[in-house]
Structures
1.
Amino acid sequence: MLREQLLSPYQPGTSPVHRLPAGSKLALALVFILCIVLLPPGSWLAFAVLSVALVAAALGARVSPRQLLVRLLLVEPLVIGVALLALLQPGGWPLFLSMLAKSTLCLACMLLLTATTRFSDLLRVLWRLRVPSLLVTTLALLQRYLFVLLQEMERMQRARRSRSFHDGRASTWRGSAQVAGQLFVRTSERAERVYLAMCARGWKS
Amino acid sequence: MRTGLEELSVLEVRNLGYCYPDGREALRDVSFALAANERAALIGPNGAGKSTLLLHLNGLLPDQPPATPTVIVDGLPLRADNLAEARRRVGLLFQDPDDQLFCPTVWEDVAFGPMQLGVREPELSQRVADCLAQVGLAGFADRLPHHLSRGEKRRVCLAGLLACEARLLVLDEPTSDLDPRGRRLLMGLLAQLPVAQLIATHDLEFVVESCARTIVIDHGRIVADGPTRKLLNDEALMLAHGLERPHILRHAHPH
Amino acid sequence: MHIPDGFLDLPTAIAAGAAAVAGIALGLRDVRRNLSPRRVPLIGLAAAFVFATQMLNFPIAAGTSGHMTGAVLAVVLLGPGAAVIVMTAVLVLQCFMFADGGVTALGANVLNMAIIAPAVGYVVYAGLRRLCGDGQRSLLFAAGFAAWCATVAAALACAVELAASGTVVLRSAVMAMGGVHMVVGLVEAAITMMVVAVVIRSRPELLDRSQRVEHGVPATVAFGAVATIGVLVFVSPLASSLPDGLEHVAHKLGFAAEAATPIAAPLQDYAVKGLVDQPWLGTVVAAGVGVAAAFAMAWLMARMLTRHALHARR
């Protein structure tokens, strides 16, 4: 399903890019993005060179170009929207295009990183970098239960839709608010059970 | 039948009582013992207190352990200072595997228990691999939980409990919401495991096939405790406690 | 409001990042002090909850729908510290998994949506609750208005960051982001209030009840301080346009002196043109209208949402 794909950007593989340790890939991506950010607007040659490097890396990673493009297209409108603010000042169009190019390159780099690196590996890097444990645990639980909650939400919405005979805005608002509220109640109850399950296997808070 | 078995029992419950925070009585005067390698079923109507009782067996309830220990695991009376060890010996399988499978990958989840116990590499990876193989999920280490079927998730949870070297497995409705194939797989797996098991379930056919002993609980009290076939064939007993005689016995030849 | 990579220059990104780290540290400290360890899994699952609810559709008009970010919802349900952690986790996941928000801009995004939004939201929410009492209606009203304030504050912070990077002119950024989010904030407020109302009705004990004593500072003073800061936030970017205004006045008076015309004429000119030519006045008026509108909407919705409850319970 499209949503399933959206939620798991990781594309399993055994390419050399996949096999690089997560920490190195993260560092490389950050350096790449930093370079782009530091380039002055209008450095079209540099943009071109970096694009080629990125495409080469993507080919080396043997990831599906279609999936990457779909994700890129999904986020691109937001980038265009912010870049439009640049048109409000003198130096408009060239600045706008430069910003678009820089942002898109950075986006593509991040997308390639997440396509070749498991999120749990990235979390382990954060853990080693001494990021506070509450934050890492929260990120891990967030990633683990996001799909579970989304499925629960979908079930509740389906149940609501099969019982509603109007389709007006007001009833959709009420229904969505009801779903959100109920989802929180269920999430709280589930969190209590997860706490018990964690304690049952020796977790010391 | 109880004299002399106390020393060999892996679990002993003595006069266990519990009230919910709102005052309602959940369990009253519950007492029974389980021998090592015994498999017993815990059956009763909804609301009888099965899940509440299970949560007592590894010290998750009550919030403050009582002065006189009411639960003794492998000779170890449950107290506030030995809960960690008790939880190692009693592996509790929760009803919803999504509640218990809280780590990002299968490997990490099975490794969670041993890691809390201080197991490190390379023994850690070996243990995870062995336990996954034991439940028939070798090669699943890198899988993400939400890609697994319900039955597979449940088996991962089991592997996680086995990785802690539990002496007693306590299972809450393990065959509910499994398709027939998943159910067969799980039943076969449980039959092979050389660990004592206490299984709370509504699946009476499963009870007849797998558990030699049955404990019936209703309104927080034990109303019957004995050989499975004898109890489950007692139609009056079954009906009196919101249960019924399972089909498998209705059409079986009388022994 | 997620800023992508390439729109912030390095000094701004680093400064925002440092502020974000400080904010997260404060949030962690608040959690350690006020949340029992039993709630640790709840923080993680609440992050998943916030992410999921951000995907819910609230149709507005002609195919557009509103969504909730949930910063103040998290504050109401979990407290400010946990809300900071929850929103930070959501933003980090969005950045890394979906490239929603740039990596170099992560510090700024976290600062805006995970620190400033919950902080402003909490101060307004707690302050209003203390002023208006502990009833359901005052709780909902406080939550709604706090959600609006939080949205606008985050948007203004975003505008300041973009301007400081030279991406946009400050005035345009403030007008655009501030203006748009004064409207978006109304949607956030409405949704927040409706969701909180549902939770109150089924499980009121789930709302965050931990008391935080702010060293005995009376609520009125705290609220007044926030209001002042809010006004300053509105006015200070416009300080860039004040020189224009002042220059204009000086020019006019200069003309008046040179031309030596009767005093009444230039003064009259100035009085009429003043309202038209001083953009800052117009902006402050617009801001005031926005605040009043949000206040009124939150108050009315709170009444509407508790109307049924009152009938049922009394």
2.
Amino acid sequence: MKEHVIEARSVTKKYKDVTALRDVDITVKRGDIYGLIGDNGAGKTTFLKLLTGQIYTSGGELKLFGAYSEKELEQNRKRTGAIVEEPGLYPKLSVEKNLEYYRIQKGIPGKNQIEETLKSVGLWDKRKRKCGALSMGMKQRMGLAIALLGEPELLILDEPINGLDPSGIIEMRNLLLKLNREKNITIIISSHILSELEQIATVYGFLSRGWLLRELTAEKLHEDCAGYLEIKVSDPERYAALLEKEMEGVQYQVMPDFQIRIQNPQFPAEAYSGLASGHGIGIVGLEQKQMSLEEYYMDLKERGKLSC
Amino acid sequence: MLNYLKSEFYRILHGREIYWATAVLAGLTVLMNLTLFAFDRLTPDFPYSTVAFSLNMLTGSMSMLLMAGLIIVVFLFSDEYKNGTLKNAISFGISRNAFFTGKCIVCAAAAFLSMLVIMAVYIGGAFLLLKSEGSLPLRQLLKGTAVNLPAAVASVVLASALCCRFKKEATVGLWWIGIMGGVPTVCFFLGLKIESIERISEWMPWNYLKYEVSVNMSGYSCLWDTPEGVAKCLIAGTIGILVFYVGGILAFHKKEIE
């Protein structure tokens, strides 16, 4: 069984009158790329700040590499690299000197680490430039370079592709995948750009208004999104009753506008249309669809709103 | 902790802040000596163009030493929140206590080195430009500086604690003035009515530097002229360091970094 790198049990975080996280259970195993998804104010950054020790939990238990006492957490944070919100840089020092500062701080031997790390994030050519003069995208790369110093076992990344240009996004994605595959670095990453997360994450956690709506693997997500049939009929209630009677184990959902969504249809589309027409129910439309991560998230959020 | 100290020294030495702060403060002393020198040339029988008058300015206002501590700390340390570098240190597993302790040590060391340069420029400039009549003013200044070093370090520790606690320089400055100058002043006036407060207020650097040090052209009456006075300065400064350090640790210990 893979080691649990992050384990959050019933973690709650309150800011005066606002509850940013409510009884959140999150597990990140070694080698995972955990995509944290949620709207602004969902609690993503709050969770990452708890991991980095910037803030403290109001309740529950947070473990990092199996440790939960404050002292052990501090010790284990040395095994992590993080960018939370904007990367922290000294604007009057050059790129190279900023990185050297953090190399010394982390106690990493060998100055060659600087060159290697700057080359890996594409900033070697800009090493003499003052950090205050860097563009937002370059600052993000610089933040990643600092996080990568010393080959951490866990990377905590909050919106790391914010401000990157398209080629920067691709480079960042490839770099994260490479680090995960070649060095088995565990990554927890939050992003608004779901299509980006979809390309790298192996596990997803969906947060909404402080609640963890769902945590599932990429395989399970693909299964859930694998496809559905949307059938628009004249009498959805009767059709639903027929589905339950005639097609055992069918998973369906009655949607607005006379629509019924059949998840993972087991039979060809004709079988479902035939069922309706055979019982005198008019078919207004029939469509085979595949759910994207965005749609899955929106759907989950809608259902979350009802249950929260 | 050691790595953190090393990294901070690296940053300070490779940054410009400490050089600027030192240059500005040293420049002010040069400017003062130049002004006295210029007046000596322009005004016949100008009585103040002496080394004694120049050096006595600081000997008689040792609280400037405490303020210099604040200035150096603000120059070196006030942007940690704004730059987001404080959260980096915490994220890398440096405890808040180690961070604060490290800042106090680094700022105190940098302030001390900066003070050495400023004093050298100040004294050198005075001797170079102004008339000298004996070594007493210099001895008084050096002794006063030495015995008030613990109080200056306490000022650095207080400023570091405030920089850990507050994001804005103005807030840091106001709190520093309130604690370092406001509280002793209030205690002084309360002490006129309440004896126990008077005893405490006499041990506050702001008060004893104001009321127990008298320097003018006719002579000196400094607290540090007696062994008891020297001990008072050293003990009061050391208590200040301990109080502000413990206060800083308590204030920063559970501070959430937004």
3.
Amino acid sequence: MRWLRGGILLLVLLLAWGPVVFLLLASFAPGTDFNVSFSNRSVNAYTSVLGLSGVGSILLLTLTVTVATAVLTVVIATPAAYAFARYRSRASTLAANSLLLSWILPQSLIAIAYFQLVAQLNLYGKPEILVFFGLLQTVPLSVWVLRSAFTNIPTELDESAFLDGAGMTRFLTTILVPISMPSIAAVCGYSFLLAWQMYLYPLVFLSGAKTQMATVGVVNFVGEWSTNYPEMMAFSVIITVPVMVVFMLVQRYIVTGLTAGAVIG
Amino acid sequence: MSPWRSRRRYGILTRGAAGLLALPALVVVSGGTLYALVEVIRLSLLHEDFLSGGVASFAGWSNFAAILVNGPFLNALERSVFFTVPSVIGQLCLGLGLAILTQSGSRSMKVCRAAIAVPWAMPPIVVAIVWRFLYLPGASPVASILSFFGLQQGILAAPAWALGALVLANIWEFTPLYFLFLSAGVQGLSPAVLEASQVDGSSRIQQIRFIIVPQLRPLLATLAAVDILSSMAIFDLIWVMTQGGPTGATETGAIYVYQLAFQSYEFGEASAAVVVMALASLVLAGLAYFVVKGRAER
């Protein structure tokens, strides 16, 4: 029984990591042809990709949009989650549920609906608009996760802070957020992941812009540089590493946080 | 006046303070989404010459008639279902199986759980690129196996097989996520109940069938609904791997809607199509939710 389980798990890990290893090997190929083997690898593709003009600004833009989305998610979701945790009524349940609406609708619906307005407001091609679409994706689950975390905090904490004369802002920033750090980390990491992986929104709203998000950038690469496969694979690795690192750092919190949210939801 | 003190208390906060705290999230997310919903319904009822800035005229149900009467959209929607159903079943069954397999609290199983989960962090776009090359003839062991079965020109070029190939890539991509949820669900089960059943002499299979799965049904139902909603809407993976080809064999609802809106600029018809698609997804998700959850109440 034991060796059977070991065998299955080994196979699963092989299947789970095989494509990742495949990508890594292809990215370290010398020359410009597609080839995967363990021998004769080089870092040529990485140095040439990072040397290409435009790649630096693509990565910078992606990082800016992603960090902005993650930070704003926490800033918006924390007070809302606190309100929903501490004020229970039919109206507040309805309000909390209304946040989930954006989660139910397909992204293409939202993109179609906003196309005209974004053009009218002169926001077409501006990365700021991506942060808004990012928030539509990240805030709902974040509020649910944080709400379940805050509900577990005894109200005596709020009351004693109030008796000591703390204002709301002070209470949220110096007491609630620090003691809820694991959940905040989960929300941050989850938002970072979702924003970094956005594809449809930048494809639609940033098309023709000077600098694109990395996801669209790497696919354009397929078209423009189709002869240089190792460079494309290296670019793919470069945009995978940051999210994988973030995910590994907050994985523990994401699991507990998201599950608490999912079970209650 | 302090935000905490009030005559009518539903908790520790006053209504005004709670409303103020929740306001930004409600305005941005609920307001932003409601606007989208109203706008897309409005667009679906208009004939609009969007590009030339012409005046929109009321179209009644003609956009809906246009997409529902002739075949392409309904065929695309059908492909979405054929893409979604096996994906969801595969992801949840594999996720549940692995969650049960790695249930023990030992250190090696902890490492194992983390190792299974990490590939999920790979952006869908990169997954699409990697799998495109995995399926490329002569490029990988996967392609060699496929060419052994007669798919020498590549599985993504074979109309009968391409959608299945996408399902496989999709299962690979999202199984870790559902594994994460289900794993946390399995970890959360009461060990006392499991031990008691062991003492009573139930086998591992019986334990899984009569104790673990029934207790996880509510979680499974939620995950099935969420998974269906997101799978029906998947655009990035399919667009990058096949662009809906070969000969439209992988043109799902999401691909069809994208092309209609952002390549043909038929916003009226595209809005009608996306509304129908969203409704179909909701019905399917609701159905799955009640089927998976329902039996637990007996």
4.
Amino acid sequence: MKTHDVIVVGAGPAGTTAALRMAQKGLKVILVERGNVPGEKNMFGGMLPHCPAGEKLLPRFHEEAPWERHVVKRTLCLLSETSASSFVFESNRFDRPPYCGYTLYRPVFDRWYAQRAIEAGVTILTGCLAEELLTQGKSICGVRIGRVNGELRAPITVVCDGVISLLAQRAGLRKALEPGDLALGIKALFRLEEREINERFGLVRDQGCSQEFIGCTKGVRGGGFIYTQLQSLSAGLVLHLDSLKKSGLAPCDLFEEFLAFDPVRKLLKGARMVEYAAHMIPEGGYKSIPKLFGDGVLLAGDAAGLCYTNGLNLEGMNLAIASGLQAAETVMEAFQKCDFSAKQLGQYQSRLQECFVLQDMKTYEKSMDLLRNDRLFSVYPRLVGTIMERIFQADGKPRKKFSRIGWDATKEAISVKDLISDLLKGGASLL
Amino acid sequence: MITEHIFELASYRIDPDAHITVNREVCKPCRHRACTFVCPAGCYQWNESNLRIDFAYDACLECGTCLMICERGALAWNYPKGGFGVRFRVT
């Protein structure tokens, strides 16, 4: 039996951040990771938006981390069976430091990040599953790991074991997750030459692009995405689990159909699929955040349900890093006071409320509800396509005003009652 | 089909012990059998001749979808032992 100041479970962005910070401040930290290397069990879309918390830990974080491309271009594409309507945003501002965001490979980034933690003095145990939390009275006092004499004890355990977080449930901090709290992400990595990627996506140097698609999931709530890495593309789908379960459709079939949509097929032409992955994403929003602290325990990252989308921003990794940092600050304060009770560790909640983490979760609480509207993923993308087709089509007859075309197409697609309800809800959630 | 090529598209170190077990008595009355279609690795199949769910854990991507959609609690679900299971290289 070994004693440490703090045990951190999970060497993802939340856990590694917490461990790194505490080690920098002189605590004896052990970081337990079930993968053989950090990042081996992650799935990631995606891009990390600019991350000031990373800079706070490592002054040259943005210069030195192993990024793939910096993202200068964001596209939202509404697909229907016959058409695609895209909104493309590019900014010169995003093309110079501090960059707006980066694409990255998680097995590469997580390993690099964990290496910084090791340099700071963190002991890391890889290939090691934290199976159970150890308790003493009502307080958590460590974890049992799957090794001989595998008990690690410490006054505080920071649990960052990811979205499913069996440990958070066992610590009594969270009830069992429901399909309505989650989305399934599936993704494949495609190899493609750098030159081809730059040409197809209109990029130069190490500029990157993110593309999101809706209307491509056969009415299942969710959407598709493509992200550019240097010499590869990540393409995948995110599907609300309750909606998927009800649909009776298989996610890999939906994925193959997504890849067959014309705009997607053209972008991926000749690219070779080299890896396939699936993962849960916390999509329950603010109301599904579990209790974030208990006696001797804190939750951070996906394990704490810290993830949101408002339709345009998709945040998870940034919240993980920021919550890991706040968890570390909370633990340091607890050590100064030699108080590891839930009352003391409750400071964590206040810290997250003071920074963007819980504020953003709260700001977009209602937009998460808006995204539970089935019509957003089927009726509306198709409607936009219909309107655009009618605007551009010439048939020898007199043209109608846009407003007339729009209103006629809308009436055909949706009842006035539903339309008004959607507009009111949409307005309330985003304005 | 992606699931047919899954062992080329993901690498594994397969744990000799299953990390997920299905309690077939509990899942017998289930009508939706959502596990047979939602699993992104296709680990669950309905066996029409034996009238039961067939489950093979070796292609599991450890996403947890099956655990979340099974409202009967028919699954004893754990992560594979440390160092085992799926290994994403570049994802």
